[in-house]
Task: inverse folding
């Protein structure tokens, strides 16, 4: 049996059920019958029942079979290539504007002074 440090155990979980999956929906519907403040107690009782059925630990072979039965791959409505083609057709083509190459000063020093002046104006420094 594996020993786990209680201080390093995760105590907050988020569980989601896939609505397209029959086993997930059956579990979600059954869990919906339990009142809100008793849901954690219900999950603890379910785990305790599982532990009684599997006294030697988690049966990963059984869980793998359940996972394979309940897993559904995500398939988008339209293939990605179709979506990209549609987006390319619907968006107008705009020409890129060339960068502004006009220099207001006489090189590197002028740009540094402009940056300092802009910062001073921004912060209201006289």
Result:
């Amino acid at each position: 049996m594996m020993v786990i440090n209680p201080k390093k155990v995760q105590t907050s979980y988020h569980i989601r059920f896939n609505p397209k999956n029959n086993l997930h929906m059956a579990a979600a519907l059954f869990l919906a019958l339990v009142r809100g403040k008793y849901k954690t107690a219900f999950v603890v009782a379910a785990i305790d029942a599982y532990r009684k059925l599997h006294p030697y630990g988690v049966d990963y072979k059984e869980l793998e079979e359940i996972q394979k039965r309940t897993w559904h791959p995500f398939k988008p409505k339209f293939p990605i290539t179709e979506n990209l083609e549609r987006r390319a057709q619907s968006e107008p083509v705009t020409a890129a504007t060339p960068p502004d190459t006009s220099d207001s000063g006489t090189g590197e020093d002028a740009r540094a002074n402009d940056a300092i002046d802009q910062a001073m104006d921004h912060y209201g420094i006289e």
Notes: The chain is about 50% helix and 0% strand.
